[in-house]
Fold these 2 entries.
Entry 1:
Amino acid sequence: MEAAVPVETYMSPRRSVAFIGSECYPFVKTGGLGDVMYALPKALVKQNCDVKVILPRYKCIPWEYQQKMIYRGSFTMDLCADGRSYYVGIMEYVWDGVVYDFIDNEEFFSSGNPYTNLIDDIPKYCYFAKAALAALNYMDWIPNIIHCHDWQAALVPVYLRTQFVNTKLTTAKTILTIHNLRFQGIYNIPTIRYWSGLPDYVFNKDALKTGYQDANMLKGGLAYSNIITTVSQTYAGEIQSAYYGETLDAHLRYHSGKLRGIVNGIDYDIWNPSTDARLYANYDITNVLDKKKENKRRLQEELGLVQDDHKFVIGLISRLTDQKGLDLVNAILPQVMDEHTQIVVLGTGDGVYEDSFRYYENAYKGNVCSNIMYDETRAHRIYAGADALLVPSRFEPCGLTQLIAMHYGTVPIVRETGGLKDTVEPYNMYFNTGNGFTFDRYDSGLLLDAINRAKTFYFENRWCWDEMVQRDMDKNLSWENSAKQYKDLYLDLTW
Ligand code: ADP
């Protein structure tokens, strides 16, 4: 029997949306953007949206997908300031109710990785932004909303309001979502002007120009889009300050009236402790307390740690970079270690962190395990086997690890920044509410204090700890919530 479609989905008016971005799981993924480009369109289909995802057809897309693509048409398109024209092919693949249109051009998309270096990437994404719009025109598919992601698609709103202003597409409203403000697509003005072929007037201080002689593609997109979103409410506020703003804080303050924050979700098909085939023992909210112990013991066995389910096991799953607050962890790790505590690290990144975690593994043999590797299976097992997960980031636009941890009944210990602040409610001992333990300033003493509060709670108030574990598992962290908010935004823009 087919599952019933929720009534509110029927009642919500239909909207068509073109997603434009540079990566999408499972075709090509280097980070969180790839997850969003995969999960959000799927969730929007359930919110009565008609979604097309437009992506580059990179050579590195696995053959199993390449061979299923169907040729949809081709044409030539003017690009550069001197009128050079380029081939644009459209290859289509339909999956799970979402239509994926891949822009085909061997000259731009034939290197092994999606991103190589700015010298190649600037022309590549000028071409991609314009070709995506030209492809929509060619297919005569005029969406209500064009939803662009990060700097690689940031020129789309600029092209739409300049070179495409006399096409049918001009009725579409644009949204630009910032997943990572650090990367902006900055190069000198003559180069970007040449490759994009955009008119001189967009290279002014209010749009693309930055500094004395550079053009910033993200900055231009922010100026020309109807709405800007980023992946949490708190981060939307933070990026308007100099500390988090990556030099665009003034520009974002100027455009703050159209800036919103919507947190990401997690994909319940991939992250589900009751069906996750990678776990030693599956569990749900009714048997988590027993099964977590089993997962903990088996994890300790696999990692060569002292096997004792009374120990407080702290996990850390992260890229080992400055963003993730690892200097704080390094500074206090010896003070965290006692006979009741174990730490399991999983990550790769900067040599200085890889080495220090290796050192600690050796210094606390049997109680610290540093897995300097990228390993999906191990990640799943740590989420299930650990009692707490550490996320002390310096900045965190949304963050996925704390969401996955909560869904697996693992209590997050996080710094109150960006999406961490929006998704982890601090424990309140008077009302026995909250999802985890938090600290505010970027300070190792405060991190230590948060870990000690969690540890004391675990050992001295297990009843309430277990309630928190169940509360965390019960929290709705699915994409459905976020998709509803995006749908509301689309409706606001197109009434
Ligand atoms: P970011 O995108 O900044 O790296 P997020 O918290 O948004 O951080 O997402 C990190 C994702 O990558 C999570 O799904 C996490 O489980 C996964 N991950 C990070 N490091 C590893 C690793 N070494 N092995 C396996 N998975 C990892």
Note: The mean pLDDT is 96.
Entry 2:
Amino acid sequence: MADEAKPRIIVAERISESALARLQAAGEVVMLDRPDEEQLAAEVAQADALAVRTYVHVTARVIEAAKKGGRLKVIGRGGVGVDNIDVAAAAAAGIVVVNTPAASTHAVADLTVGLIIAVQRKIAEFDPRVRRGEFATLRSEAPQTLELRHQTLGVIGMGRIGRAVSERLHLGFGTRVIYYDIREIGYLPFAAEAQPSAEAVYANADIVTCHVPLTRLTRGMIGDAALSHFKPSAILINTSRGPVVQAEPLARALREGRIAGAGIDVFDPEPPPPDHPLLSAPNCVLTPHVAARSKEGIAAMNDVVDDIIAVLQGREPMYPVEPDPDA
Ligand code: NAD
């Protein structure tokens, strides 16, 4: 086939060698390194497909440029959160958006459990102190946490990841699970008690864990007002999106002992600048947005290329994304 007849596929963030090879077999691949809005708008005007991950924003302006170009058929997001893509604008322009909804469920759930235990059992704090010779002093401190079987996990957003975390905690550790979700959640294969509001979860949980998408409703949902409901002994885990939690109010609540600890994988912005409030907050375990980064998780995210190719070849994609009215 002549090159000009091949679909032109923009890869705007790093993908694996094997995913790249699959795309190269299906078309002409143009690799970009996290282009800005202007560069991306210029590129999509002459492309048939676009692959992104977390950090490239496919804005209404980029979609408008693609629409004018008249070629772009599909935007693939390796991963689940589509807050970096204007899905409604894409749908209006007749451009299909695809993602990999379940790729990172288990990786994120695993890291969430790790953060819970790291915060409550002070693993990250103890490690450097043991190395500094404080072994005996640390052993003489009174324990401050109950075992997980005597605690209540509060899940905000009982979707794929919320469920996977709940399963691990309830079935593995015997933790009671309560949750709030904006949508009616049907049958769950483990015991979990729905709450009428997020506030009811904040007030009754020992561990609050956020698994919501970033939407206009969830942006900043955990700030001063939400934190005022938390038990002082409770901890907050955020492996969803940085802007869901307001950093300054959380840092203040940690400093003032209004909550006992936090485990944070996601920031606003990323990477967090040196003066980001959570970098100096006490009892806070931080990871660099790596919750999804298991070997299996990354491989499954790269499989978004298969849906991109399906759309280019006129087949039904496995995971089309519908516009979210709350986005
Ligand atoms: P999902 O769509 O299966 O679940 C999200 C749940 O949140 C749904 O049940 C939805 O009804 C609920 N929800 C939406 N708005 C709400 C609100 N205002 N209040 C309460 N509940 C609300 O998604 P998922 O696969 O479980 O992923 C959840 C999020 O985790 C993703 O959108 C993404 O932002 C984040 N994520 C982060 C990483 C990471 O590396 N840290 C990796 C994967 C996903």
Note: The chain has 13 helices and twelve strands.
